[in-house]
Write a structure and sequence with these properties.
The structure holds 2 protein chains of 2 kinds. Chain A is of the alpha/beta class. Chain A is built from 12 helices and 10 strands. Helix content of chain A is 34%, strand content 11%. Chain A starts with 35 loop residues before the first strand and ends with a helix. Chain B folds into 2 domains: 179 residues, Rossmann fold (3-Layer(aba) Sandwich); 128 residues, Rossmann fold. Chain B has 12 helices and 14 strands. In chain B, helix 1 runs parallel beside helix 7. The chains are: A alpha/beta, B alpha/beta.
């Protein structure tokens, strides 16, 4: 039975501002910085390539036998909200299991990407956004798409390339979005490109008079790209409300995090951008929500971006074809014990006693029923007609009526005569 | 008003910013400095730093952020200090922006504009004509004005268009040509070519600075009784197929002239279009007169050799007329 305790936020000093020297001593020649770390355990592993007889493989070093910590009570979530997030996580996982089955039945076009082990991060983070704020999901953040209002059938139809998919068959997996209501920016396959785009969304909103939070994700592998730097730096220097989740799931396809960067924690990168950095346990939905909520509130107050590093592991391969045999078994065992759904399940039912066994079973049954209905719908829906490949590259007259989403920007309105305006434009001095 | 090509562009952007509060400028050194070529000179005083945004040196971020703002209903005008640097944002433009409407129904009403072209001793990285990378990409519109009048009308159209427009301003023309430009609100539609000079002996299909080379050659040949027709494409994507076909039907002999390199330049595309639309009207092979297949060289004698000249146009015209 887990102990009940209210853990304190673990951080030393103010976030990223240098410490001053103690009184009476000369100022130190080096600066120190600090990063907020919400975790209740701080494991450290490293992977390196070693020769083992006639093969080269990955070897993991680090403490892999620590006890699983309890879920850290959220400072903000109510019982009802916790149960809601749990439901999204269940839907996320079961939807992906259904996708795997559809793939094995030969109904999926191309590959399937899983966010197994990352459901707490996808769902609890997106849960912190308001409806009129924006999300830019990455390939494994399918849970966040569900939270924003897309349904499992939408995602299934994307994978099966059906005519009724959000992209009408024109793109796969999570590559879809919605401008009108759900405010989701469709990702592209190259990594980091969503970051400047979401920064631009916040810029557009600010020009229309509103400070909003915008949220997107990047992986430990993806954050290596140049556009990641350009986008986050732009958001920082322009003070835009970008909440960036760096999902450190330890693997970029077959490349371990140790071969992507040299810092111990990616949250340290925040120091280089001049923004707050936070480390959170990616398998703890409460920690993720709290970090997301605080970052969103900062954004809404006009205080700029936050970088949140969510620590977890990708529990399947890069895609369905990848058995991930390169992952050392002890690492799988360690993170399996920290399955986000099992941890939250235990928290809700056993620790907080917010769900009875019966209520839990009922919840699971509802999720299963919803998924089955969506699966049937998606499987039965038609493929696109071949000729629908053509057209639609351009917005033709009458196709879209573009209006500022948050209101017409307030600009200077002094009346100037046309001749004077032309003069002014030329700046004839 | 008698304006330079640059002043006409400035006036066009200014008028659109006055007219539509969702229009704003974003780029490097466009604020207090007024832009490397002074296109946005005075804008920050009039419109404020909110609408004239100086960015870090980060072209992917400039385009990405412009696209993001466009998704909220703004109409950004993103400046590239030199269009040679468009390579730095190639992925954002061709993958993020160009495919948005096709994939997920998201219009991207942004303009990417900046100076391109050579003959200014700029060398390989300040003289390029990168337009074909974007003509080649479905979902983008590509515009290359040749006159001050067209520059103003086209930039206004580009800003009002709901599609991403890549707007190539020829830097050689910035201060060297002046035109009568109305001080009022007029537009030049995208996708329409213009007959710069009517003629009947041979058509030169061209755009941007080469329009003026063609016109000078036409002037000289006119003294011999040879009347060239010069078609100024103005928009490279979408191409005005009808205007191309019509000029072929009028003169039956065609030369395509462009400052872009030979291989993969738009002359090949236009040749294919003429083949499809007006093959029977041809009285001779389609000639193309282009720059060399090299980067733009720096030394003036080399650059002169690299670029098509009036004398080249005259020589090749005589050859085709003799066919």
């Amino acid at each position: 039975m887990a102990k009940k305790h209210k853990p304190k936020a673990k951080h030393s000093g103010s976030n990223h501002r240098p410490h001053s020297a103690p009184k009476g001593r000369a100022a130190s020649a080096t600066r120190t910085y600090s990063i907020l770390d919400y975790r209740l355990e701080k494991p450290s592993f490293h992977l390196r390539q070693v020769r083992d007889g006639d093969t080269v493989r990955y070897e993991v070093t680090g403490t892999l036998d620590g006890a699983v910590p309890p879920i850290r009570d959220s400072k903000y979530l109510s019982k009802q909200q916790c149960i809601e997030i749990y439901r999204w996580m269940l839907l996320n996982r079961k939807m992906e299991a259904a996708l795997e089955n559809l793939y094995k039945q030969g109904k999926v076009v191309g590959g399937v990407y899983f966010g197994l082990g990352q459901e707490a991060c996808s769902c609890a983070s997106a849960y912190a956004l308001k409806p009129d704020e924006w999300l830019g999901p990455m390939i494994r953040n399918q849970g966040s798409l569900l939270v924003r209002g897309f349904s499992p059938r939408d995602i299934m139809m994307q994978y099966m390339a059906k005519a009724g998919s959000p992209t009408k068959g024109r793109d796969a997996s999570s590559h879809f979005g919605d401008l009108q209501q759900k405010n989701v920016v469709a990702p592209i396959s190259t990594l980091g490109d969503l970051i400047p785009v979401l920064a631009g969304v916040a810029l557009g909103a600010r020009l229309q008079g509103k400070n909003i939070a915008v949220m997107t994700y990047i992986g430990d592998g993806g954050q290596s790209t140049g556009v990641t730097y350009e986008g986050l730096n732009f958001a920082a220097v322009q003070n835009l409300g970008l909440v960036l989740f760096v999902e450190n799931n330890l693997w970029g396809y077959s490349t371990p995090a140790d071969m992507q960067f040299r810092v111990e924690d990616l949250a340290e990168r925040a120091i280089a951008y001049g923004i707050p950095g936070v480390i959170a346990d990616g398998t703890d939905a409460c920690q993720i929500y709290d970090a997301a909520h605080e970052a969103c509130e900062r954004a809404r107050r006009g205080e700029g971006p936050t970088l949140i590093e969510a620590k977890m592991m990708r529990m399947k391969g890069h895609a369905i074809h990848d058995a991930a045999e390169y992952v050392p078994k002890p690492l799988f065992e360690y993170w399996k014990k920290r399955d986000p759904i099992a941890r939250f399940d235990n928290y809700l039912v056993n620790v907080k006693k917010w769900l009875t066994r019966a209520e839990h079973e009922k919840l699971v049954a509802e999720v299963d029923a919803q998924l089955e209905a969506d699966r049937e719908f998606a499987v039965a829906s038609p493929m696109p007609k071949p000729e629908t490949a053509a057209g639609g590259t351009c917005c033709e007259p009458g196709c879209h009526d573009i209006k500022p989403k948050y209101g017409v920007p307030k600009v200077r309105t002094e009346k100037v005569s046309s001749a004077r305006r032309a003069q002014a434009a030329l700046h004839l001095k | 008003m008698h304006l330079t090509y640059l002043e006409a562009i400035r006036q066009g952007i200014w008028e659109e910013m006055e007219r539509d509060p969702t229009v704003f400028c974003i780029g490097e050194d466009i604020g207090i400095y007024g832009g490397a070529f002074k296109v946005t000179d005075g804008f920050i005083d009039r419109f404020g730093p909110e609408r004239v945004i100086d960015t870090p040196i980060a072209e992917s971020a400039i385009v990405g952020a412009a696209f993001g703002a466009a998704l909220t209903g703004m109409r950004p005008v993103a400046e590239f200090q030199f269009m040679d640097f468009i390579g730095c944002a190639f992925n954002q433009i061709t993958n993020m922006v160009a495919k948005a409407h096709y994939r997920w129904g998201a219009p991207a009403p942004l303009v990417v504009r900046g100076p391109s072209g050579g003959n200014v001793h700029g060398g390989p990285f300040h003289s390029q004509n990168p337009e074909m990378y974007f003509v080649h990409t479905p979902g983008l519109k590509v515009v290359c004005p040749a006159t001050a009048y067209d520059a103003k009308g086209l930039i206004k159209s580009a800003i009002r268009d709901n599609n991403p427009v890549i707007f190539f301003e020829h830097k050689y023309l910035y201060r060297r040509i002046k035109d009568d430009v109305p001080a009022d609100d007029y537009i030049v539609p995208l996708g329409e070519a213009r007959v710069a000079r009517a003629g009947h002996d041979l058509s030169i299909i061209t755009y941007a600075a080469m329009v003026h080379v063609a016109l000078e050659a036409a002037e000289q040949l006119s003294k011999e009784g040879i009347e060239l027709e010069v078609l100024d494409l103005r928009t490279l994507s979408p191409l005005d197929r009808q205007a191309i076909a019509e000029t072929v039907r009028r003169t039956n002999k065609v030369m395509i002239l462009h400052e872009d390199v030979r291989t993969g330049g738009i002359a090949g595309e236009i040749t294919a279009i003429i083949n499809e639309e007006a093959f029977d009207s041809l009285d001779g092979p389609i000639l193309r007169l282009t720059a060399l297949d090299t980067p733009v060289p720096f030394a003036p004698p080399q650059e002169e050799f690299f670029l098509p000249k009036v004398s080249d146009v005259i020589r090749e015209t005589r050859k085709l007329l003799a066919y």
